Predict the structure.
Amino acid sequence: MMRIDILTCLPRLLDSWFAESILQRAQGKGAVEVRIQDLRDWSTDKHRKVDDYPFGGGAGMVMTIEPIQRAIDQLKGERDYDEVIYMTPDGERMEQGLVNQLSTLGNLIILCGHYKGVDERVREYLITKEISIGDYVLSGGELAAAVLSDAVIRLLPGVLGDETSALSDSFQDGLLAPPVYTRPADHNGWKVPEVLLSGHEARIHDWRLQQAMERTRQRRPDLLGKDEKD
Ligand code: ADE
């Protein structure tokens, strides 16, 4: 079973997120165990401080290395971890390929940054992977850690009802997903494409592929020919 430990100084932000929805089901099914860890528990300061002023001056506080190192050391003493990830806007951009790769691993630690970030020595000596969820700045890494965890957990065996449904996601084949329809077949004259009602599997498959390609060409032409560029 995969285990994800999320280190944060704002644990309540994430507690409710992981107690709900598909993530709760995933944990109930034994596909993953998510532990939200309060970094302040590893602070030795009487006010449970986890940040300090930046050397050299400047605005904003910096997260200190000691509580982070103690937390990581303790967790690593209890089990092996495959990656210690830091969520940061200057990390590797998160895409489906990276998510697929992480979903094959065992245990992950995810560190959420706050304030002006973490002491650079955390990144240099303790972190094995830095991930950004996009080119914009959030007020903390918690939402980013939730986004990454959600994308990874839904790929774990047994989490999605239909085992094959993650394979038909947008991006899994480098294309956006085709449109889907359900009853009624005719809603006030707005009709479902005839081919989907035909029962003709091969034609339906061709139609979906053609729609996926057309949609990708119109909305995300950057995705086409991406494999050739890589
Ligand atoms: N922390 C703040 N902004 C972030 C982003 N875009 N991605 C990951 N972590 C972040």
Observations:
- The domain at 170-229 is CATH 1.10.1270.20 (Trp Operon Repressor; Chain A).
- The pocket of adenine is lined by residues 87-89, 113, 132-134, 136-138, 141, 144 (CB under 6 Å).
- The first strand starts at residue 2 and ends at 8.
